[in-house]
Design brief:
Blueprint lengths: L1 H24 L15 E4 L2 E4 H4 E7 L2 E6 L5 H9 L7 E4 L4 E4 L5 H35 L1 H4 L1 H34 L2
Antiparallel strand pairs: 1-2, 3-4, 4-6, 5-6
Helix pairs in contact: 1-4, 1-6, 4-6
Subcellular location: Cytoplasm
Function: Responsible for the release of ribosomes from messenger RNA at the termination of protein biosynthesis. May increase the efficiency of translation by recycling ribosomes from one round of translation to another.
Protein name: Ribosome-recycling factor
Length: 184
């Protein structure tokens, strides 16, 4: 029973860490990266569709990405969706078959804003992990009558170690992203 709760909790915490890393990847640095466009949603014939399903993306230069739509009819919609992405500052150009997205150089002030944004996302991820811990602790407390207080206490210690390892993983990813953002 306790092992099942801890296994399930570990899987949910690992998913929270992965989501945090994906969020960090979505914040742009000085270099162009196709992952920045993972959360771009395009209105494709009235249906919200992720950009990755509509086009291939290539990083051809340090600050330029070429988006090649699978359907040329979606070119204008993709271009508008990229232009409307907040915190990107990109101005896509369309040559009739591909879209070139050139990202402007980041200023020091903008880099600091992105660091604040990433720290906020990191804190949100840690809150998510703590919420998962709280729910697991409630589940463990409900098992006290079935398995005994000693086993539940051991389970809670394991839960704390699990929580610490996942928050440390978020902190490590946050540190790497901050260093990447501040790198010129």
């Amino acid at each position: 029973m306790i092992a099942e709760v801890l296994t399930d909790t570990g899987a949910r915490m690992a998913k929270a860490v992965e989501v945090a890393k994906e969020d960090f990847a979505g914040v742009r640095t000085g270099r162009a990266n196709p992952q920045m466009f993972q959360k771009v949603i395009v209105s494709y014939y009235g249906t919200p569709t992720p950009l990755a399903q509509l086009a291939g993306m290539q990083n051809i230069e340090a600050r330029t990405i070429v988006v090649t739509p699978y359907d040329k009819g979606a070119l204008r919609d993709i271009e508008n969706a990229i232009r409307d992405v907040p915190n990107l500052g990109a101005n896509p150009t369309n040559d009739g078959s591909v879209i070139r997205v050139t990202l402007p150089e980041l200023t020091e002030e903008r880099r600091k804003e992105y660091v604040k944004l990433v720290r906020t996302k990191g804190e949100d991820a840690k809150v998510a992990v703590r919420n998962i811990r709280r729910k697991a602790k409630e589940e463990l407390d409900a098992l006290k009558s079935e398995v005994g207080e000693d086993d539940v206490a051991r389970g809670e210690k394991e839960l704390e170690a699990l929580t610490k390892s996942h928050t440390d993983a978020i902190d490590e990813a946050l540190k790497r992203k901050e260093a990447e953002l501040l790198e010129i």
